[in-house]
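[worker-b] picked up task from shared queue
[worker-b] task type: protein-ligand structure
[worker-b] ligand name resolved to pyridoxal-5'-phosphate; SMILES cross-checked against name lookup, match
[worker-b] sequence length check passed
[worker-b] input payload:
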Amino acid sequence: MSRVYNFSAGPSALPERVLSEVQSELLEYGGTGMSILEMSHRTPAFSQVIEDAEATLRRIMAIPDTYRVLFLQGGATLQFAGIPLNLMRRGRAGYLVTGLFSCLAAEEAAKYGEVEVLASSEKTGHDRIPDLAPVAARAAEGDLDYVYLCQNNTIYGTQFHELPEVGDVPLVADVSSCFLMEPIDVARYGLIYAGAQKNAGAAGTTVVIVREDLIGDGPALAACPSYMSYRRQADARSMMNTPNTFGIYLTGKILRWAEDEGGLAALAAQNRKKAAVLYGLLDSSRVFIPHAEPASRSIANVTFRCATKELDEEFIAGARARGIEGVRAHRSTGGMRASIYNAVTLEAVQALAAYMREFEDAHR
Ligand SMILES: *Cc1c(COP(=O)(O)O)cnc(C)c1O
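[worker-b] inference finished, payload out:
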């Protein structure tokens, strides 16, 4: 078996320990005589899987009791609709557009109500988090159902390191690509959600953490599909229909792994170390050009390019030849991106850095 160094943006690297555990349990799970893939979601064994996943997540993120945890399907993208359908009670929300995913979320929400773009980084090619003062001023007017942001911009490699001041207006955050990478104060948000395939498992599971009072008696819009009603999903403990059983099982294992690694503070320390290796190299480079402004840099996705497309292609091909995969950036930006999520080891990052130095020496 030979595994590459995987810097894919998602689906992305998983901890080897978890993959081995899944392999060893695949034919028979926990003395049940069957695979987790073959098991009804109404069995005691599966109930324990989903309950343990939620309990572990609550421990490692210190989620207050006033929040509900849901394990849904449809990816982060379905939540672009789920959020306005459930939360647009007055029909107006503010969006911070800092990349493709927040742009798509704003466009989707505009089908259901008034969307105001409160800040945007489009003019500078999404290379930074914009000034948040106007967001605070607009939120203070008090008529917005929520303020929405994408906390880590997977494609552009920028991240909110501070949140806008929104007073009593609920803050809604897509944390798909920075989930579990550092501690966050859940109480500052009304709703947080993450597709699992970046840091928390396989594609097909989305974790939604929502303050109970926001979901009230039901969705804001009567036309909300039953599946997307946070109220119904919370009441059914994410099992109003057949949930993604295997995905939830895998996410549960990742959460246990994260806890065994020392929890989010320990993972954050390791993640900062990994990011510093790459940003340090980019800052002193004469060949690589970093995309994100230093104050807005992501700890999850490091974006850069060379002076020409030909050099980018040469770099990507050379990486592949050295067992380094997934460094081609998103098709919308070009250049390179190294996604250094929780399961990407310091050793992998050092291997990439060594190749970058080699490339630099050959081309400066
Ligand atoms: C990957 C990603 C998405 C899209 O996720 P899907 O599961 O493909 O819908 C949305 N937001 C962010 C921040 C992402 O990284």
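[worker-b] attaching auto-annotations
[worker-b] The CA atoms of residues 85 and 221 lie 5 Å apart.
[worker-b] releasing lock
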